[in-house]
Amino acid sequence: MKNKERIEILPQKLVSWAKWFVKQQVSEGDICVDATVGNGFDTLFLAECVGPEGKVYGFDIQQAALAKTKKLLMEVGLLDRVYLFHDSHSHLGTYLSNNTVKAVMFNLGYLPGGDHTLTTKPETTILALKEALPLLTANGIITVVSYRGHPGAIEEYDSVKDFLSKINSKKYRVFSIDILNQEHLPPVLFVVHRYR
Amino acid sequence: MKNKERIEILPQKLVSWAKWFVKQQVSEGDICVDATVGNGFDTLFLAECVGPEGKVYGFDIQQAALAKTKKLLMEVGLLDRVYLFHDSHSHLGTYLSNNTVKAVMFNLGYLPGGDHTLTTKPETTILALKEALPLLTANGIITVVSYRGHPGAIEEYDSVKDFLSKINSKKYRVFSIDILNQEHLPPVLFVVHRYR
Q1: Strand partners, B136
Q2: Which residues pair with B192 in a beta bridge?
């Protein structure tokens, strides 16, 4: 078991890193947000983290994504703690109160298996991050997996990096994890930790 | 205790991150290397990690650094597991065999409290990294804290990043952790994980 944990902390995929960071912060009973439910894997992960007393709010502008996620959560019997909204993550603040959310996960880009031209966009992603920041409780975190391969991806990555580089360092710590030794441009993980 | 661990995993300083990654990989009885002993804090940390059956090899080209480190290790009674060498880390391979080392820690730049013009240099740092790579056992790691503030630091950072970006991805995974939201240029942590 100890060995298993060790392998887990140096995962190959950045989405696994994101989950790992979230898992360190989230306790049973917490409220978490999947800002981009996609195929629902992060929603499922968050639903497991928060336990029966917790709540997960999931957002997507594509009905197909919400349907897949709902199906997945039903299959594993965790839908009762999950609230899905057919809306843009740029409206997060409409649904949640400040200082109430332990973790917000963003996985940018397109819906895997869906229409690859329907992607998250810099403007709405930045709006969503602005909405997400005040929602965090103390010790809460935001994870953002940002891609650089598809058309428009680099622009979104640059916008996110620029925005996160300027947020208040007295309240939030922001760091990025880059995989370096790959030939193509791999995704980057950004983590925002509200430490005060 | 659980809460304490949680705080530890999102540390403020990159040197703490480096220690944290090392701690996940190192077991009692392992051999570790402090490639730049400086004031000896990483040597001490490694000596604690490897336990009474382990060994730590420490290198520095400054006698003052070795003297400070020796004093520190004596004070805590851990000098018996530590071997200090007055030599450049670019000669690591002379002292250690391939596939025997679990962790190598580099903390670049100058000796804190010493002569700030005596810094690690790109050429020898890259040589040292080349020497360190084959020393790693499976699941071994190298951590490099690289600065960007003092004269010549950016050049060294660029060299290290460039070198690490090109190493064999079939055997090593290389990632960097950057703190983003700070006004000055903070240090960067590079981690090399031999995963195969």
Answers
A1: B101
A2: B142, B174
How far apart CA A140 and CA A147 sit, in angstroms, is 23
Q: pLDDT 10s digit of each residue in chain B, 196 long?
A: 333 344 345 666 888 889 988 998 999 999 999 999 999 999 999 999 999 999 999 999 999 999 999 999 999 999 999 999 999 999 999 999 999 999 999 999 888 888 888 888 899 999 999 999 999 999 999 999 999 988 889 999 999 999 999 999 999 999 999 999 988 888 999 999 998 8
H-helix or E-strand spanning residue A59:
strand A55-60
Longest dimension (CA), chain B: 44
Find where tokens 């304490």 sit. Answer: B4
> SS3 sequence, B99-123?
CCEEEEEEECCECCCCCCCCECCHH
Mutate to test the interface with A, among B180, B183, B188, B196 (most CBs of A within 10 A): B180
pLDDT at residue number B8: 45
Are B46 and B34 in contact by the 8 Å Cβ rule? The answer is yes
Strand partners, A32: A56, A103
Of the candidates B165, B166, B180, which has its C-beta nearest A164's C-beta?
B180
- State how far the Cα of A38 lies from the Cα of A61, in Å rounded to an integer: 9
Burial class for B7, CB neighbours closer than 10 Å (0-12, 13-18, 19+): exposed
3-class state of residue A33 by DSSP: strand
Q: Which of A6, A24, A180 sits opposite B165 (nearest CB)?
A: A180
Bridge partners, A92 (sequence order): none
**Contact by Cβ (8 Å): B30, B46:** no
Find, among B107, B83, B103, the residue nearest to B95 by Cα: B83
Tokens (6 digits) for B172: 């090593």
Q: At what angle do helices B14-25 and B41-50 cross, to 10 degrees?
A: 20
Nearest CA in chain A to B25: A6
Q: What is the pTM of this model?
A: 0.89
